[in-house]
Amino acid sequence: MFERRSRQRPGDRVPAAERPIAVVPEPARADPAVGRLYDLLHEVIDPEIGINIIDLGLVFDVTLIDRLATVQMTLTTPGCPLSGYMDSAIRHALTRLPEIDDTRVDLVWDPPWGPHQMTEEAKRQLGWVP
Question: DSSP assignment, residue 62?
Fold first, then answer.
């Protein structure tokens, strides 16, 4: 299991200026609505690790079409028991926006998740970098 030195809790917000821009793909930066979805996904915390799903590198893509937000993501392992929790937490976070009527979470397993997908901030929170 991971050693936890710093724990982010639901509702804790890392200011946008302190987040690595690389976690938001170029198309999302061009669409303010999708950018807001990425911001809200920073509030979804993996309860086992205590870090948000964006910084963990679990989210691959976010789209918004006809008031449906679709999140393409993975989990740290295919047998992870948190898929139901993640779906619920993502739905709760994203449907707070008035332009979102529904959400869909598409779990993908290729490419498999690995620690190299985490941001430097996530690695710092885990004590992997100074």
Answer: E
Going by CATH, does the domain composed of 16-125 fall within 3.40.50.300? no
Q: Are 117 and 56 in contact (CB under 8 A)?
A: yes
pLDDT, tens digit (0-9, with 9 covering 90-100), for 92-129? 999 999 999 999 999 999 989 999 999 999 999 999 87
- Gap between the Cα atoms of 41 and 46, Å rounded: 11
100: left (phi over 0), alpha (psi -120 to 50) or beta: beta
Closest CA to 107 of 68, 78, 81: 78
Q: Read off the pTM.
A: 0.77
Looking at residue 32, its amino acid is P
